[in-house]
Structure formats: C-alpha cells, structure tokens
Design brief:
Elements: H1 6-13, H2 27-36, E1 46-52, E2 55-62, H3 65-76, E3 83-86, E4 89-90, H4 95-109, H5 114-118, E5 126-131, E6 134-141, H6 144-155, E7 162-169
Parallel strand pairs: 2-3, 2-4, 6-7
Antiparallel strand pairs: 1-2, 5-6
Helix pairs in contact: 4-6
Length: about 170
Amino acid sequence: MKRLPLLLMTAALMVPIGLVAKPAKTLPEEVQHKLATLPYYNLFDELAFKVDGTTVTLTGQVTRPVLKDDAAYAVKHIEGVTGVVNNIEVLPLSPTDDQLRLATYRAIYSAPGLADRYGFQASPAIHIIVKNGVVKLEGVVANQMDRQIAFMRANGVFGAFQVVNELQVAS
C-alpha cells in the first residue's frame, strides 16, 4: 500500500473559504446588519425597524439628514425587500442640543463601571437622543443598576429639561 505524503492528504481535505456555505440571514437580521453598519450612525442616533412581509418600516431619530437617506437606500437594496417606509425623524439643528448631547455623553460614559462596560464600543449600548432640551436614553444595558446609574448621571446634566429613560435590561 502506497502512503501519500501528509502534505497531500491535508491539502485534499482543505476547502477554499469562498466555497463554504454560510447560513442564510433572515430578513430582519440582514436589515439589522445594514443599519448597524451605516457610516454616520452613532450614539446620538436611534434607528429601529419593523418587517411586515417584504416591506420594511424604518423609525427612529437621527442628527444628520444623510443618515435618514442612507438607511432607506441600504435597506431598499436588500434582497427580498420590495418596499421601504421611511419614518425616521431628523432632529432639529441646535447648538444647545449639541452641547447637551456632549455633556450627557461625558456624564454617562465617564461614570465608573459604565465606562468600563459600555465605553469604546463600535456600536454603543446606550444611545443619547436630544430634542429641544429633552434627553432620551435608548439601548440595552446589562442590569437594573446600570440603567439607574445612566439615568441619574444624565439627570444631573445642566440644561436638560427632562430625561426619559427608555434603557432596557438584557434578559
């Protein structure tokens, strides 16, 4: 019996990466991925969607008009999507709101514990939405204590008329 060299045996078992089938993403997973990877999407924006058959309805609030358009464009070109309803609100331009966004960011992301768990992420867990002096916290945190700390830190920012805590606790 002739023995093949080990190198040839392993080479025969290797499959080029491009030929390995990846599991297909569902439509909601694909929409989520497209929205999360938009270039101007950041912690001062909040995007959400609903899939109804092959129609995707986009909602949320963004600081840049180009993000609203980019979101609709990206979702419209997903295979299987036949319609996009773009209900994303573009927040009004306001230097006061911009200052409040930054101050709230510093207050939350400099808090001991929160900075370690939620700071310096490609996709921040806590989104800060500011409209006409009203601060809204969106996203998902690890526990009730983090939710409460983020709320208290945002509530202590000078200039905020109101803080709405819509942070969810991961289950």
